[in-house]
Structures
1.
Amino acid sequence: EVSTEDPEIAFCTLANREDLNPEEGSIHHCLYQFTHNEKLTETNKLLCDVCTQRHNGPKKDIKSEKKYVYTNAIKQMLISLAPPVLTLHLKRFQQAGFNLRKANRHIKFPEVIDLAPFCTAKCKNVAAGNTKVLYSLYGVVEHSGTMRSGHYTAYAKMRSMNDRLSDLVLRGQSPPASETEPVKGQWFHISDTHVQAVSAAKVLSSQAYLLFYERLL
């Protein structure tokens, strides 16, 4: 879908992303890099339908007669609809030449994360005036081992039902601006049939592969 935005707000976010100053090796830094402006120039220029139509005029309808016009552009990936459940997939496997290897670096992630610096200024399901889009961590998938062999385990938080999340999933209603603390509950580590209660500190020190957050605000 192609839409025309006011150039003044096309690259604006709900909260000022430049105030973040994200720490290297954190999930905030990953999101900041993923949503950074990218200039499209030279061989990456964007095919512009408006420029092409302007150049060829209204009578040039036959494709073979058209000269397609490409122009410099700026590309940015931002969130336009805040999801009820946020799933973040960390790229743990990378190609080095002809070989694949696993990235074992620890990535810091919080119990509560604010997506506002990565959402468009006109995010569709955020109430007007809100400058926070908060999510609480409730699940982590961890991979141990190498590319040749390994094991997946999970951390999950047992908590009470989140009625506001149900409203958001079923009826699309934005949650009220109230709690900003993590959803209370007990963390468990699950490895095959073995389940063990663990602390939040243990969860936050894990080598996360997948992160699952539920929307608070």
2.
Amino acid sequence: PPPLLEPLFPPQPGASPGFAERVRQHKVRLEWVRAEPAGLRGAVRVLNLAYEKAVSVRYTLNSWASCAEVPATYQPPGPADGLTDRFAFFLPLGAAAEATLEFAVRYRVAGAEYWDNNEGANYRLRGRQRALPAAGLPQDPDSTAWIHFI
């Protein structure tokens, strides 16, 4: 079975109280992540400071000995608040997902750069193998039989 990434942070920061205020204050915040068999999918919320903007996710699987960066894509329509935009990303991890994944979000707009690195701790997910189904008691061969009433 494919490995499972276990977030070492709340996987839906956007659902926590005060999220909109944190976006206004810091300009960029991770909204949610979801581990999938091929990698990590997520969304980022940014303060709409200018029309042209770039959002990307920088990540590593080896404690920053090397890293990769993937662009996030704008997700129309924007959030109903009119002040922020949402961007989606996918980190393709494949078999490497058994390692610990760390990432941070970068937002470039109007000549400035803003980061969301989980208050300096980076967003970390621990890779682990999915547990195989437990070998329980032998199944009764008649457990799938139909019972007929006359």
